[in-house]
Structure formats: C-alpha cells, structure tokens
C-alpha cells in the first residue's frame, strides 16, 4: 500500500515498473516505434496487483481484452473496451511509454503500477480510435507525472491565514487596509502556533496526534520562513524532524528537503547574497565563491546528499546539491561524481558579450519582493525613468527618476505614490491622450482579489489615483496581467484585463476619463486562471486581436470582429498553448511581417527544469513558439527553434540585445518556494530561425526569482539594457533589483518614438517597418509593433530597432491603425533617436546625448 | 433489498455463510499443531461492540485466504476502541484449532507523502490550532439538510434522498494529479457498475466539487460523461460558492488555492438510510472493492 512506502513522494519512483524487464524475451518480432509516432492501445486498470495478475492470466488464456476491460477496468476507457489513442508515446507516462515501445500487437504487458491502480496494456494493430480529452488520459499521460515537492516559503500558510480572517467589506479596495490585514492575519496565526507549540505543548500533545503536531511545527516553520526568520524556521523543522523519526518515517524525505532548503535560504540571506548580489547570485560554471560563511550551505548540501543517498534518482535533490556547491565554489569538483550535473549542461555556445549589473552604481536602491517594472519617460525630459512595484502587500512602489547627472533618484514620495502599496505587475499607456504616460497597477495575482490602481500622470512629476472615478475599482479581482489596446480604433486606448478564476474584463475607454466593462458583450468575459493577455494584429486586418494564456486548460486567441466583439479561434488557428500557460506574447520573431506567438509553460517542478538542462526527456509540456503562416493559422515550430524546454518562466520580455534586428527573449524564472533557484534565461534569436541560450556567456543567469523584465537603452549608447525586477513571492524572499548593462555591439540602430493624432497618442498598436540595405546591397526588413513588450514587464513604448551590420540605407514605413494611414520615410539617418507624428511628413530628430550610468561599460 | 448484482464478495451476510467460511479457516488451521499468527490489513465495514466483533474487507492473508469480507472477533472489547467503519486497520489474526481472534488492532490514519494532500493537511491543522476552522461531522452524526445543483442543472436536496444510502466524494475537475480526484471518481465509476440495479432506488452517488467558481453544471456534466454517469443516480454537485463551501466544511473537506490549482483533502463519506454518517474515509488508500463492500454493508443493514 502507498502508506507503507518510505521512498520519495514521486509516484514514478515509489511505484515500480514491474513490466518491461523480461518482456523482450516474450516477443518474437520486436518493433520499435519512433518516440512521437502515435499509437493506439487498450488498457485495463484494477485496484490491486493481485487482481491485475489474475486478469493477465485470463488474457493469456485467450480472454478478450476489450470484454474484460468493459467489465473489470476502473479506467474511464472501460466503456470503449479500454481503447486509448491515437496518442504519441512521448505524451505518456514513462511507465507506459517504456512498455508500449517494446510491445507488439499480440503481446500482453506485465502488470504496470499507475497512480489510479494496476494496469495491463495491449497494443492495437493500427493507430485507431478517436481523440481523447486531456482529463481522461491524465492517469496515463506524462503531464500527470510531473513531480512537485514540498515547498518552503510559507506563501500558502500566509494566504490561508488571510483567507480565514474575518474582513470588513471593501477591505480589498484600500492598499493600506490590505497591508494591515495581511500582517495581522499572519501574526495572529504565528502567535497561536507559538503558544500551542510553546507553553501549551503538553496540552497540544494530548489533544492532537503526533502527525498533527508535526504538521503544526511545519506550518509554524513555514510562517517564520515567510517572514525570513530562517533560524527560527529551522528550529521548528528540526522539531518536526524529530517527530518524523519517531512516529512518521514516511515524512522524513520531506523534512530533509525542507531543512536543506531552509539552510540554503539562510546561508544566502546571512551572506548578503540577496541585498548585494553582484556576481554571487549568477549561474557560473566556475562556482560563485561568494559565501563568507559556508556553514549553512554545507548543512544544506548534507541534507540533499542524504536525500540522494536514499533516492539516487531524485533529480530535484541532484539539482539542489549542485546549486549549493555553486554557491560555495565547490562546483563542480566537490559534487560527488554520481550526482554532478556536468557544466556542459549550462554552457553557452555563443556570446553576445558580458552584461554587468550596475543597478547600485546607477542609484537604484531597491530591495523587495516580486513586482512589475516599467521603463519609460514619465516626465518627458528625454530620459527614461524606472517605475517598480512590490508584491509584498506592505511594500512600496518606487519611481526612479533619471537625473541630468545620469543616475537615478527615488522620487516616489514626491510623485504621490506613498499609499500605492503592493502590486505584482505594472503597465503604462496614455489613456487620456494628454501626452504623459499613465500607470496601471495590477494586484491580487496568486492571492485574494484586490483593487487595481489607475494612476494618472499629471504631467508635473506627480500621479493621482483615479481608479474609482475611472470605473476600474470594482469588482476587485486577482490579476497580474492586462493589455492596453485600442480594440475599436477610435483613438482611445482600451484595457483588457486577464483575471485568475474570474471573468476577463474588457474596459472600453469612453474618452472622458471613464471606462465601461464590455467584456460580456464582446464575448471575452470567460473565466479562466489567466496569467497573460497580449494584443497583436495577427491577421494584419488593422484591428488588434487578443491572446489569453491560462495556467490550466487551453489558451484563447480572440479574433477581433471589428465591431467590438471577438471570436475565439485558438483551436482553428492551432495555438492552444501548453497546459500551464504563463507569460505569452505576439512578436514577429522572423521579421516576415506577420505576428508570431510565444507561449510559455509553467509547470511547478524544479525537476522539469533540471531535465531541460540535463537533456533528459520531459514530463511537462514545453514552451511553444507558433509561427504565423499568414493565412489565419500558425505552425508549432518549437522544436526546430530549439525551444522544447520547460523553464518555469514568470516575468519575461523580448528585445534586441545585439541589434541584429531579431527579437531575443529573456525569461525570469522561479516559483514561491525557496528551493526554486534556477537561472533566468537569455535566448538569442539566430536570424529568425532558432534561439540559442547565451545565459552563462552574457552573465545574466540570475538564480533568484525573476519578475518584471524590460529592455531599454538607458544610457543612449544604442544598445538595450536588461532591467530586471528580482525577488520572490514572500517578504522573506526579497532581492535587489538588477540592471544588466549591455556591453555593446558593432551593429546599427534606431530609436523611434511615435506620436499618434487620430491613433492613441502613445501610438500603441502602430506598426513600424524598417527596410535596410547593407553594404553588400542585400535587403532586409525589420518589423515592430508599438507596445511595451511581453506580458510581465514593460519596456518603453518608443521602439528600439536593431539594424544589423553596416546599414547603408534605411527606409521606414509606419502604419497608423486608427486612421488607417501610412507614412514612408526614405534614407533615414541611423544610430539616433527620432520622433514621428501621425499625419505629418516630418521626421523629428531627438537630442539624446549618451548618458553613462556609472557602470563598468561607462564611456 | 439490494440486488444480486450488488452482492459481490459479501456473500457471508447470508445466514450460514460466515460460519462456513470460519469453519473452513479453522479446519485449515487445525492441520497445524499450534496457534498461528497472520498479519491482516483491510477496511472496517461494521463494528459490533456488544458482540466484540468487527467486519473487515481485507486484503489477501498470505498463507490463509484471498481477499474477501470477513467478520473477526476480539477477546477484549477494548481492542475495538477507535475502530469505526471506513477505518483502514492492520491487526494480527491468531488462528488456533478451535478459535480465531484478532488482536493488536492499529488504525492506519491516512498519511500521504504527496505534496498536495500534505500541504492541505498542514494548512488544516494550522487553521484548527489557530481556532480558524469549523468542526466537521463525525461518524454517527445526522447530516443537516442542504441543497445544491447537479450536472443537469437540477436542484438536489439532501432531504429528498432520505431512505436511500448515499456515497459522497469530493473532487475538482481541474485536479492535475491522477492519483487523487480521478482515482476517487473512478471508484464511483466502479460502484456504478457494481450496484447498477440498486442505483436510484436504494443508493445514490454524490460527487461534490470544492471548486464551484470553475465547476459549473456544464463543466461537471462534461467531467461526468467520462463515466457515463446517469444524472438521476450519480449527481455531480455544485452551487453558490457559500453553499458549496458550507457543505464541504461540514464533511471536513478543505481546499486551499495553490498556484492556480487547489491543495485539498480527500474524503469519501457513506451515509445510511436515516441520514447519519456511517463512515468518513480520508484519503485514497483503499480499493473500490472495499468501498463497495462498505456500501453493500450499509445497504443490507437495518
């Protein structure tokens, strides 16, 4: 029985595959099928191995497989005589995959242990049957075997505490109230547990079973970890470990893991890795050698090694032991060879030069939890500012103003942002067409519904919260994603909001400072756990379409019917996404003039990321790249683009780091768990064909949790920096902000700022085509749509366009969607910033003197 | 009376059969010279404290008998403390030449090593210790009336099902891990087959979602179609969020949001004809046969 096993939580390990071995001898003609060739098979699932063996004997005696499936199988396929398929072998659980690969059409498998019981399978002669829905095949699919382990972060405990608290009506309309209730709820539960496990422990032991007392220690430890009190958390985990050793041996692996992770987090906190990370938080093949005191990290390694000695196939523990050694400088030599992940797993085959974090030198003093980031010019002084939020309910927003002297100063108080607490994501637009960028704050993602904030830019360095009068305050939702998009080309930017387990909202901008939610009428008010929405005109009909990426289930592609309604065409267009969608966006990665789609997958499994690096088969679905075929449909080019990986991306964006005209991708990665230490990923776009991992060579592999990402040329030297909000979901997982300065490249560029007249003033949705003739006479085009980039993190609305090497002649074509007008500018001078107004034939050069940030590459 | 189809492995309830089984067992053991101990594991179906006996749907007893349903006696009625229907127990069966008895009964509390149920358990304990949870119904308690909406959009009142035996489980359709919701749904799929003739007349199956925001009647109808569930006899229930939460809390089912999914407890409840809880089983560590035997026992009890 399951309860007796002492092995790890993984079903795949705990349940042995009884089959496969010895099967070959049974088969005369052994046929091997290609890994992704579709197969059909029949299956019988029963509740005990004993019963399965009896059924197998009857099958070998000549009984009909289909008939026995109908009467005996507990699988939903029973009524179809157990028929499953056609399905690709790669989509099946490893246990089944291995058996079916070697089974011929007459053989009956041995008994296979599955999460739903004990199974026997038989191959069908042909790939017959009809397609089967995801849930029906869950017990058999690889996705159903993605492994998640205990997390250490207290996020669930803190959310439960807040959920369980009696709250006044409209508590979620005021950020300050949210902050107070959040703290109060956590403190209440901590106090109660401290009493129960402290002075009242004797009573507690009488009233509760050892199992419950152990869980209480764990819960208390989690809440302490939530606040970053790691020594105290470890003390609770140690108490729980003692109970596990005496009463709950099955929990020992979880506790080893929790203790290891807690010590690891403590080591990183105590050594200042999060406050002043420098290179010490970056993925490095030489090891980071950053810890002054290695005692806790060594303890962490000890726990992970203990786990591995009990379960040598535990890939997550293997990952963690390597990461722990990277921190102490012991990687790779000191990692026991049998657990070592070879450095080649991370090596970059290309380089774009080494980026250097200059946040601190540039005056960006920001240490916080997760959050959003906008880089844009909020005071129209020609210099880009940085706006960032703090997911911590009590965390402050920061507006870093770029001064004439070059560095940044925090102007959030002067800007009137003192009461704007919390916020997981931020987006800018000019909703009132007054020429100043306004800011939308999205709150409640991953937690209870909370009010958004719309901050009107008063064009004088201050902002006013106009959420209530604008009509955006209610209902409060849990959200971290929205898209500013003019859906009806009336020149007023509308707002599409994706929510978590609540209907999406489509706010039409009435043009008078107010919005109305037309989501239901428009046909987009569907309920899903939405993690990304994005706008793009994928069919080039001049009207913006919408893409919705959902954490569970298929994604939506809403085609704009040009009458303020939309139709979901995701299935027809072939863009269902991975089953766990997070960041997603339209972008023209191959510069063919048709917007393609990048869709991430977010399976909460450190093991799957490790498998991606180690080149092992994945159980999770990978991220997807869909190439627009120009006929209303897309083709899945994930594999040929070298993106068939699972990285757990959160904040992410795209930009052109090497000015070759092709958009590159930066993925911030992680999850709330303090164990989720995985490098962020920089993927260089190789001429619109494939993506190359340049993380290590560029020095951008931040191991901590990656949220809002922006690309922007902050120092006006013609290349894009990566501006990166780093920090986890809890107050105890805060981290310093990153500003990775681009080392530069020899390629040409243009910075183009568009100003709409009939089109919304910030020109969101306008299209830019640069046609470039290089020195050899070869012609190329680069296509850009004006927006702030991907779905989590906002780049400037002015567009940075890489022109490649030695551009001899550059022509620009602009398309303005609201007026439907086009402009052509021939022989544009390269390597400078320009401004173009709708309906004007003038191209205005912008004076943007180089403004060094005081960093390593300062010129 | 339940039909023959529902009888399954529980033949012993017919007069005399149990005696036959026991005599057979004693006969087997009498071939041996001395008392012999056998480890037994199974689910308790019925407890008769007065007679110091209990009925167990047990797994194969190696060296003695295949899995089946059997009554066992204890020498000391105190041994039966804490033993309730639905409990998974391990005990020692001592078989001598003239008698057999059970001793060293240990109730195996559900203890998952999987992340989701463990997190749910931890959070439930946390709430309880911090005084934030409501008490749940225990075995023997009468279930107060409630009304929810099924997959055919029909209102289903608990009181309208009086006089029938009910099996209740709890799921959510987005459940990403096959060993939990899918497994318990499969169990009911097996019950549906085994008790085909009793369903509707004597027995009704209820599957309650704990994710009412997402699991609308339409979503549930789609989910239910996997098992060809007849909406008249196997209701998949949802309703207003507050109502559903109340029903779940009443039965001790808690769910906690976690990164877009839910960490949740697993519970299967059997309710007798007068609306009292016969068994409330935590977890997924029992077989559909054992659950069926428990339902059968309840159907045949007066």
Structure, explained:
The complex is a heterodimer of chains A (859) and B (302). Chain A contains 18 helices and 43 strands. Chain A has a five-stranded antiparallel sheet with strand order 17-20-21-22-23. In chain A, strands 2-1-4-3 form a four-stranded antiparallel sheet, with helices on both faces. In chain A, β30 and β31 (690-693) form a beta hairpin. In chain A, α12 runs antiparallel to α13 (315-328). Chain A is globular and about 85 Å long. The N and C termini of chain A lie far apart (68 Å). By secondary structure, chain B is an alpha+beta fold. Residues 1-19 of chain B have low confidence and may be disordered. Chains A and B meet through α6, α7, α9, β17 and β20 of A and α2, α3 and β11 of B.
Describe what is shown at a glance.
The complex is a heterodimer of chains A (859) and B (302). By secondary structure, chain A is α+β, with helices and mostly antiparallel strands. Chain B is an alpha+beta fold and 302 residues long.
SSE topology:
The complex is a heterodimer of chains A (859) and B (302).
Chain A: H1 11-14, H2 23-26, E1 38-46, H3 49-60, H4 65-72, E2 83-88, H5 94-102, E3 112-114, E4 117-123, H6 155-164, H7 175-197, H8 201-207, H9 210-226, H10 230-246, H11 252-270, H12 295-310, H13 315-328, E5 356-357, E6 367-368, E7 373-376, E8 385-388, E9 398-402, E10 408-410, E11 425-429, E12 438-442, E13 453-457, E14 463-465, H14 467-470, E15 481-485, E16 494-498, E17 500-503, E18 505-509, E19 515-517, H15 519-522, E20 527-536, E21 545-550, E22 556-560, E23 566-568, H16 570-573, E24 584-587, E25 596-599, H17 606-614, E26 624-628, E27 634-636, E28 649-655, E29 664-669, E30 681-686, E31 690-693, H18 695-698, E32 706-712, E33 721-726, E34 735-736, E35 738-741, E36 748-755, E37 767-774, E38 779-785, E39 799-804, E40 807-816, E41 821-825, E42 832-837, E43 843-846
Parallel strand pairs in A: 36-42
Antiparallel strand pairs in A: 1-2, 1-4, 3-4, 5-35, 6-34, 7-8, 8-9, 9-10, 11-12, 12-13, 13-14, 15-16, 16-18, 17-20, 18-19, 20-21, 21-22, 22-23, 24-25, 25-26, 26-27, 28-29, 29-30, 30-31, 32-33, 33-35, 36-39, 37-38, 37-40, 40-41, 42-43
Helix pairs in contact in A: 6-7, 7-9, 9-10, 10-11, 11-12, 11-13, 12-13
Chain B: H1 17-30, E1 36-48, E2 53-58, E3 68-73, E4 88-95, E5 100-107, H2 115-129, E6 147-149, E7 155-157, E8 165-171, H3 178-194, E9 203-209, H4 217-224, E10 234-237, H5 241-250, E11 255-258, E12 261-264, E13 267-271, E14 277-282, H6 288-300
Parallel strand pairs in B: 8-9, 9-10
Antiparallel strand pairs in B: 1-2, 1-4, 2-3, 4-5, 6-7, 8-13, 11-12, 13-14
């Amino acid at each position: 029985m399951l309860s007796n096993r002492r092995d790890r939580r993984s079903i795949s390990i705990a349940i042995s595959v009884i089959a496969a071995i010895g099967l070959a001898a049974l088969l005369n003609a052994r046929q091997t099928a290609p890994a992704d060739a579709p197969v059909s098979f029949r299956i019988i699932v029963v509740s005990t191995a004993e019963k399965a063996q009896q059924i197998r004997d009857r099958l070998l005696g000549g009984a009909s497989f289909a008939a026995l499936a109908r009467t005996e199988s507990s699988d939903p396929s029973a009524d179809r005589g157990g028929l499953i398929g056609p399905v690709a072998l790669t989509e099946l659980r490893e246990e089944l995959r291995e058996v079916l690969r070697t089974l011929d059409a007459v053989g009956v498998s041995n008994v296979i242990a599955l999460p739903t019981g004990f199974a026997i399978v038989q191959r069908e002669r042909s790939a017959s049957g009809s397609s089967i829905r995801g849930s029906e095949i869950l017990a058999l699919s690889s996705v159903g075997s993605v492994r998640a382990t205990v997390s250490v972060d207290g996020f669930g405990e803190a959310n439960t505490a807040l959920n369980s608290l009696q709250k006044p009506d409209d508590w979620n309309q005021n950020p300050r109230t949210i902050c107070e209730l959040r703290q109060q709820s956590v403190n209440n539960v901590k106090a109660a547990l401290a009493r129960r496990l402290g002075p009242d422990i004797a009573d507690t032991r009488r009233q509760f079973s050892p199992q419950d007392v152990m869980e209480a220690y764990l819960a208390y430890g989690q809440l302490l970890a939530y606040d970053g009190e790691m020594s105290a958390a470890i003390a609770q985990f140690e108490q729980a470990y003692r109970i596990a050793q005496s009463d709950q041996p099955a929990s020992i692996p979880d506790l080893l893991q929790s203790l290891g992770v807690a010590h690891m987090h403590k080591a990183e906190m105590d050594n200042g890795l999060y406050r002043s990370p420098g290179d010490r938080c970056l993925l490095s093949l030489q090891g980071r050698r950053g810890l002054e005191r290695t005692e806790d990290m060594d303890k962490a390694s000890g726990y992970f090694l203990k786990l591995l000695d009990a379960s040598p196939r535990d890939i997550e523990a293997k990952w963690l032991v390597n990461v722990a050694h990277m921190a102490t400088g012991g990687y790779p030599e000191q990692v026991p060879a049998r657990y070592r992940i070879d450095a080649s797993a991370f090596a970059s085959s290309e380089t774009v030069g080494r980026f250097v974090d200059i946040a601190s030198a540039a005056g960006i003093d920001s240490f916080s939890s997760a959050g959003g980031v906008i880089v844009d010019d909020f005071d129209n002084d020609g210099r880009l500012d940085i706006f960032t939020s703090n997911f911590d309910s009590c965390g402050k927003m920061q507006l870093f103003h770029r001064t004439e002297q070059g560095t940044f100063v925090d102007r959030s108080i002067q800007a009137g942002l003192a009461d704007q607490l919390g916020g997981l994501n931020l987006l800018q637009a000019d909703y009132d067409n007054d020429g100043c960028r306004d800011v939308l704050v999205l709150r409640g993602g991953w937690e209870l519904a909370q009010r958004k904030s719309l901050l009107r830019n008063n064009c004088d360095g201050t902002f006013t919260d106009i959420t209530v009068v604008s009509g955006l305050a209610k209902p409060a939702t849990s959200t971290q994603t929205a898209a500013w998009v003019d859906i009806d080309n009336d020149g007023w930017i509308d707002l599409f909001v994706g929510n978590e387990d609540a209907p999406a909202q489509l706010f039409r901008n009435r043009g008078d400072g107010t919005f109305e939610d037309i989501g239901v009428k428009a046909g987009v008010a569907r309920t899903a756990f939405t993690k990304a929405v994005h706008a793009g005109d994928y069919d080039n009909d001049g009207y913006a379409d919408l893409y919705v990426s959902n954490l569970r289930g298929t994604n939506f592609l809403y085609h704009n019917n040009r009458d303020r309604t939309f139709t979901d065409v995701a299935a027809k267009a072939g863009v269902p996404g991975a089953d766990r969608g997070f960041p997603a966006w339209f972008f023209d990665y191959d510069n063919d003039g048709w917007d393609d789609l990048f869709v991430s997958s977010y399976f909460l499994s450190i093991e799957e990321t490790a498998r991606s690096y180690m080149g092992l088969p994945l159980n999770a679905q990978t991220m997807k790249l869909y190439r627009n075929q120009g006929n209303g449909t897309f083709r899945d080019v994930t594999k040929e683009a070298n993106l068939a990986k699972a990285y757990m991306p959160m904040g992410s964006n795209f930009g052109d780091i090497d000015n070759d005209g092709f958009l590159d991708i930066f993925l911030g990665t992680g999850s709330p768990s303090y164990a989720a230490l995985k490098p962020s990923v920089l993927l260089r776009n190789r001429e619109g064909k494939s993506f190359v991992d340049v993380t290590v060579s560029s020095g951008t592999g931040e191991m901590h949790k990656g949220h809002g990402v922006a690309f922007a040329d902050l120092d006006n030297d013609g290349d894009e920096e990566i501006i990166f909000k780093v920090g986890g979901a809890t107050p105890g997982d805060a981290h310093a902000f990153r500003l990775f300065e681009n080392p530069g490249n020899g390629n040409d560029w243009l910075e183009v700022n568009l100003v709409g007249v009939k089109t919304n003033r910030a020109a969101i949705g306008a299209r830019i085509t640069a046609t470039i003739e290089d020195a050899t006479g070869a012609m190329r085009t680069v296509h850009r749509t004006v927006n702030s980039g991907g779905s989590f993190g906002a780049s400037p609305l002015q567009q940075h366009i890489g022109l490649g090497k030695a551009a001899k002649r550059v022509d620009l074509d602009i398309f303005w969607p609201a007026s439907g007008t086009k402009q052509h500018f021939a022989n544009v001078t390269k390597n400078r910033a320009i401004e173009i107004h709708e309906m004007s034939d003038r191209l205005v050069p912008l004076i943007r003197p180089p403004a060094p940030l005081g960093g390593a590459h300062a010129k | 009376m339940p039909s023959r189809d529902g009888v399954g492995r529980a033949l012993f309830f017919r007069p005399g059969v149990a005696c036959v089984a026991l005599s057979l067992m004693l006969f087997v053991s009498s071939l041996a010279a001395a008392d012999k101990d056998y480890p037994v594991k199974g689910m308790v179906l019925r407890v008769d404290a007065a007679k110091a006996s209990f009925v167990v749907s047990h797994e194969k007893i190696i060296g003695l008998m295949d899995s089946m349903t059997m009554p066992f006696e204890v020498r000391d009625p105190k041994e039966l403390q804490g033993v309730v229907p639905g409990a998974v127990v391990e005990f020692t069966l001592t078989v001598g030449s003239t008698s057999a008895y059970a001793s060293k009964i240990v109730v195996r509390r559900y203890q998952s090593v999987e992340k989701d149920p463990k997190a749910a358990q931890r959070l439930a304990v946390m709430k309880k210790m911090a005084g934030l949870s409501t008490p749940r119904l225990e075995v023997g308690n009468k279930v107060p009336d409630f009304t929810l909406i099924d997959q055919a959009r029909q209102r289903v009142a608990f009181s309208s099902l009086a006089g029938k035996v009910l099996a209740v489980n709890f799921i959510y359709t987005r459940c990403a891990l096959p060993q939990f919701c899918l497994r318990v749904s499969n169990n009911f799929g097996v019950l549906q087959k085994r008790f085909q003739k009793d369903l509707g007349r004597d027995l009704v199956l209820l599957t309650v979602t704990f994710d009412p925001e997402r699991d609308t009647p339409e979503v549930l109808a789609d989910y239910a179609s996997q098992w060809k569930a007849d909406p008249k006899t196997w209701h998949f229930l949802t309703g207003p969020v507050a109502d559903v939460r109340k029903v779940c809390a009443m039965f001790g089912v808690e769910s906690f949001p976690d990164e877009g999914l839910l960490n949740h407890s697993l519970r299967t409840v059997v309710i007798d004809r007068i609306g009292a809880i016969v068994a409330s089983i935590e977890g997924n560590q029992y077989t559909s046969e054992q659950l069926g035997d428990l339902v059968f026992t309840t159907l045949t009890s007066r």
